[in-house]
Design brief:
By secondary structure, the protein is an all-beta fold. It has 2 domains: 95 residues, Immunoglobulin-like (Sandwich); 181 residues, Jelly Rolls (Sandwich). Helix content is 0%, strand content 53%. The chain contains no helices and 25 strands. The N terminus is likely disordered.
């Protein structure tokens, strides 16, 4: 087995043989993304000030590694502090994303989960209503995900949790949901009900198990042709041949004809399989 390294990137392959190798050693679930709006009262004044999600700057995870947040609705989702009673009975001035009306929605984009398997998404949610007679259920909020390159969205089946009038200011965990391993994931949250129903979102956490499988990749001479750098893969001396880039789970990301002897393909951080004319190499882009 021959190992080639170049500028913090590792290409593991062998000449005319089948290679088995392990990408990572950890077996435990790892937090990939954790957004808590910077905790308690760090930028907003309780009940008196708010900032749209587009103008709030004190995020804990959004803004890192290319992750962005956008509000598409006429009435923007905003970040504010309200006094919330947690599930442990503690009153806190808690920063959270506030969705006060029907069709208010926001999307978190460019989340990279491609280096993980068994990816899970969880979040905390509180209700709120101007009238104590209005009932609320956690499954009245619509949450779905999109994968880059696909026009389809997949709606998550949010667990039913009917909020009692005494619980509407309680910040409660809304359950755990499976989402895909992909290099560009979008999560969309939408308030779908008009009866003065308010939803408040916090502690958005995505976790997964680092890829630990042993992979079998057949390779022939690619150790002298495929290199990786920060943010891209470089392919040399393979002009006029077809290259395909796959995730480790087998999803096709890109496929194109190499049009020069020094060809770059931009890729976010992650683990990929490069296939050139049936020859394969696994690369890690830092």
């Amino acid at each position: 087995m021959k190992t080639t390294t170049s500028k913090s990137v590792f290409i593991l392959c062998a000449l005319f043989c089948t290679v088995s190798f392990s990408i990572a050693e950890k077996l435990n679930s790892t937090v990939i993304f954790n957004e808590n709006c910077s905790g308690n009262g760090s930028q907003q004044s309780p009940n008196t000030q708010q900032k749209s999600v587009g103008s709030f700057t004190n995020w804990s995870a959004i803004g890192l590694n290319g992750v962005t947040i956008t509000s598409y609705s006429t009435t923007s989702a905003d970040v504010r502090t309200n006094t919330i009673l947690t599930s442990t009975g503690t009153l806190v001035d808690n920063n959270h994303i506030y969705m006060p009306a029907k069709d208010v929605l926001f999307a978190i984009k460019n989340i990279n989960t491609s280096s993980y398997s068994d990816v899970k998404f969880t979040f905390d949610m509180a209700g709120g209503s101007a009238s104590t007679s209005v009932t609320q259920n956690f499954n009245e909020i619509e949450i779905y995900y999109k994968v880059s390159g696909s026009t389809d969205s997949v709606r998550l089946n949010i667990n039913s949790k009917l909020l009692l009038s005494t619980e509407k200011n309680w910040l409660l965990n809304a359950g755990e949901y499976a989402i895909p391993s992909t290099n560009n994931l979008t999560l969309v949250f939408k308030n779908t009900f008009a009866l003065a129903k308010i939803f408040r979102i916090d502690n958005i956490v995505i976790s997964g198990t680092p890829i630990t499988s042993t992979f079998n990749v057949q390779s022939s001479n690619l150790e002298n042709s495929v290199f990786s750098n920060s943010g891209f893969v470089k392919i040399i001396n393979k002009k006029n041949t077809k290259v395909s880039i796959y995730t480790v789970s087998g999803s096709l990301l890109k496929s194109t004809i190499i049009n020069s002897d020094d060809f770059n393909i931009n890729l976010p951080q992650g683990i990929y399989v490069v296939d050139i004319d049936t020859q394969k190499a696994k690369v890690i882009v830092k």
